[in-house]
Amino acid sequence: MTTDLTAGTPTPGSRPHVILGVSGGIAAYKACELLRRFTESGHDVTVVPTAAALRFVGADTFAALSGRPVSAEVWHDVHQVPHVRIGQSADLVVVAPATADLLAKAAHGLADDLLTTTLLTARCPVVFAPAMHTEMWEHAATAANVATLRERGALVIEPAEGRLTGADSGKGRLPDPEEIFEICREVLSRGVATPDLSGKSVVVSAGGTREYLDPVRFLGNRSSGLQGYALARAAAARGAEVTLVAANVTLPDPAGVKVLRVETTAQLRDAVVSAAAGADAVVMAAAPADFRPVSHSDTKIKKADDGSAPAIELAQNPDILAEISHDRARGGQVIVGFAAETGDATGTVLELGRAKLARKGCDLIVVNDVSGGAVFGAADNQAVILGADGAVTDVPLGSKGALAHAIWDQVLARMP
């Protein structure tokens, strides 16, 4: 019986061809969800498991979900030369989960099965999503193998923290399949084989802070965190080490991103300043509350019987963007701010954005027209990116991911 693993090789203009490699870890079952997301979004997927992976998930399962034959052997359809053809035809190779053994083989160029030979022949972007116990991830050999793969242009996603096999918990958990898919989609959309932010450390803030009046009520804003999360995901897809400071956001953690959760502006300030100490770039996409109550009630503030409202005295919060812009943690650090403006009697949206750029002292500012509540919570965004050097980049309406990449393009152009 013939399986013809190379059948359906795409032609120019056809659906993106993804190779989903699956190695032999307990997280192999999660590859089924990743496969489903690829196929349902219109990608042509060939699953290439290792023999060990097939001990966790059967070939028939992968075949049924992908609609294509599945084999771990180089000896099937030898006349089609699958160990060469599969990699040559790919637009993307993603290995999820990638075990310590698989990473070691890939780093040292070993090729003893269909997946490892495919990795050697692929000339497209390659993404590894590691999953293993914490001790294995932290071992010097694994660290060296990951560094080697990154140096060669592969994107190795940082594993998540959480429950592992048995009673163990720690770093080494496979990121959520949905977030691995989003990273892969970012990589495919750019069509660039080498991550251009590899070796860079970046900090992104997202969401809106809360300043509590009492245990129930707070002063806040409408920021959803979607743009900040898009920035973090885009940076991770481009190879950066990403720290995301999230203020009151309920979105799932982007794959490969370290997430720090905060509530108030003071907490946001402390987390950003600390993380910025080792960062090449900081993008302040969060919306910190400008003011906080001078006093906070430990009990719920009750309505007055006479219908009067309590007077609330406010104090100004620290200006995080101005602080990190004027007191740079390191030379060459690029600082980006956001300006959500509506325009008023003092100036247009762009005029107010330029004034904020000069006042804060940052390198770039992303100006959004939020008249009528536009942008908040929406999937799409449009903006003008203003540079302290006079540059103006108009980003038309599109996904927040597209704007995120436009911002990182400008950041990268200013990095030493």
From TrEMBL:
Reactions it catalyzes: N-[(R)-4-phosphopantothenoyl]-L-cysteine + H(+) = (R)-4'-phosphopantetheine + CO2; (R)-4'-phosphopantothenate + L-cysteine + CTP = N-[(R)-4-phosphopantothenoyl]-L-cysteine + CMP + diphosphate + H(+)
Pathway: Cofactor biosynthesis; coenzyme A biosynthesis; CoA from (R)-pantothenate: step 3/5; Cofactor biosynthesis; coenzyme A biosynthesis; CoA from (R)-pantothenate: step 2/5
Residue ranges of every copy of the DNA/pantothenate metabolism flavoprotein C-terminal domain listed in the record: 197-412
SUPFAM superfamilies membership: CoaB-like (SSF102645), Homo-oligomeric flavin-containing Cys decarboxylases, HFCD (SSF52507)
Location of the region described as Phosphopantothenoylcysteine decarboxylase in the Swiss-Prot/TrEMBL record: 1-201
Names of the cofactor(s): Mg(2+); FMN
Location of the Flavoprotein domain: 17-185
Gene Ontology terms: biological process: coenzyme A biosynthetic process; pantothenate catabolic process
Protein's UniProt keywords contain Ligase: yes
HAMAP family for the chain: CoaBC
Record family assignment: In the C-terminal section; belongs to the PPC synthetase family.
Protein name, per record: Coenzyme A biosynthesis bifunctional protein CoaBC
Organism: Nocardioides islandensis
Gene name per UniProt: coaBC
